[in-house]
Amino acid sequence: MWADSPQLNLFDELARGSLARSMARPLVLMACSATKLNRPAPAMDLYRGVMYETFRAHVRADAQPQVIILSARHGFIQPDAEIAPYDLRMTADRAQIMLSGLPTAMAGAVWPYQVGPVFLAGGMHYRRVMRAAVERWAHRIGAGSAPTIMETSGGIGMQRSQLGQYLDGLTSQLPRSEGRSL
Q1: Helical residues (DSSP H) of the chain, grouped into ranges
Q2: Residues 110-139: tens digit of each pLDDT
Q3: What does CATH list as the number for 13-169?
């Protein structure tokens, strides 16, 4: 069901003296969508694709993960970043350009201070850039190793189902987390 991705321990929490991993707020990285509003809006509202419909249908107020969006045009952005509609898809070439300038691509998002489980929602080119960003993020905050990563796979129907199941499985009253731009 899930794509083959490394399931790594975050770090030896006792040795680092940090909060338990279960206390870190989950992070969902979502790919942008081709379907958009026809006017500028916050990114989470601008994108109208089926993955965003699924997110809205399954996310609960008492169990909201942190969300960062990977825009093929803007790189990683916050859900509340106001952007205008555009027409650019994540191709293999576009993904390579983002990977070559990963710090710049990551600069538009506020990444959490604590490493928690990460869910990657998007096509293969998006997930390639997302995995690289997660590794960089974990390294920058001194996590020692990459967080547990789950990701979508298969066709869009399967990806929608996987995202919905993931969101349905989040526990209520997730801890609040603060972040920083990298």
Answers
A1: 13-16, 43-46, 50-58, 92-100, 102-106, 124-140, 156-168
A2: 998 887 899 999 999 999 999 999 999 988
A3: 3.40.50.10630
